[in-house]
Amino acid sequence: ILVLLILAGAFIPTQAFWNAPAVSTCNSAFMGRQFGELLVQPAAGTHSATVIMLHGLGDTGSGWKPVASQLQLGSHIKWMFPSAPTRPITMNGGGSMPGWFDLGTPTQDDVGIQESIDYISELIDSEVKAGISADRVLVAGFSQGGHLALKTVLKYHLKLAGCIAMSTWLEALSFEVPAAADLPFLICHGDQDVMVPVKSAYHTDKLLKSRGLNSTLNIYPGVAHSSNSQELRDVSVFIGALLPAVSEPSLTRDDVDKMSVKALKQFLIKKGVDVTTLLEKTELIEKAKSLCSE
């Protein structure tokens, strides 16, 4: 599972981003707080991994959903794009906007942060309950979302696949992180970022390593509080390495006899078969048996 966020709507997609598949949506209420719309892009193939991406301040999950197609990862990955609740933001003069927690206050909004951590953790829980191993869930975030991604992964009670934190920050940790031992972290930051200065990335990387965690730091020359194509390629490689497709056991002819019409069609489609011409279940079974082992 993976988390991304944005402080100033600085994500700049290429044209290819807008060719993303359709996603399902639902409104999300959690512990009395009305979170925004949750967008879900199901795995096109057999679901065996999940990435949760967290948007930034003033943005919503829809601002990042095209990244799923841009990264060109496997059809086994399900994508989740949650949206923060709309709340008064101090640094916005008290005006309301989507935000995972308040910013600009004299002291950190620990209540708001924990509330959002609990919400994202509940999304992870739902994936685990559905049969996805925790170590097949990656969380990624950009800016404020990156901060939330880091803290969610560090505090979660099970070891996840990894964490990507883009253009963000992290203060000294006041809690232990036993479940995150050896978990890979990717810290990405532009060296021209004036909203979250690049020194925050060096500090975050140093802090994680001081806890014995596996952190990789990538600095992008000339990039402000945004992302570029090289950063996205690095993100794609990182996710692909941590969430490879899982080899499926070979089907036997006896297995085929026990499959439903839906399962037969899914199997054949994955094999590149045009099922529109196979109208009867017997035809589906015959074709499937011709493609499987004895």
Describe the structure.
29% of the residues lie in helices and 20% in strands. By secondary structure, the protein is an alpha/beta fold. It has 2 domains: 15-242, Alpha/Beta hydrolase fold, catalytic domain (Rossmann fold); 253-289, no CATH class. The protein is elongated, with a radius of gyration of 21 Å. Residues 1-22 have low confidence and may be disordered.
Largest pleated sheet? 8 strands, mixed
Overall structural class, as computed from helix and strand content, comes to alpha/beta
**Average pLDDT level:** 87
Number of domains: 2
Number of helices: 8
- Please give the order of strands in the largest beta sheet: 1-2-4-3-7-8-9-10
CATH topology term of the largest domain = Rossmann fold
Low-confidence spans: pLDDT under 50, at least 5 residues?
Answer: 1-22
In the CATH classification, which architecture of the largest domain applies? 3-Layer(aba) Sandwich
**End-to-end C-alpha gap:** 36 Å
Top CATH class of the largest domain: Alpha Beta
Tell me the Rg in angstroms: 21 Å
Keywords: Hydrolase, Signal
Pfam family, one: Abhydrolase_2
Protein name: Phospholipase/carboxylesterase/thioesterase domain-containing protein
Organism: Tetraselmis chuii
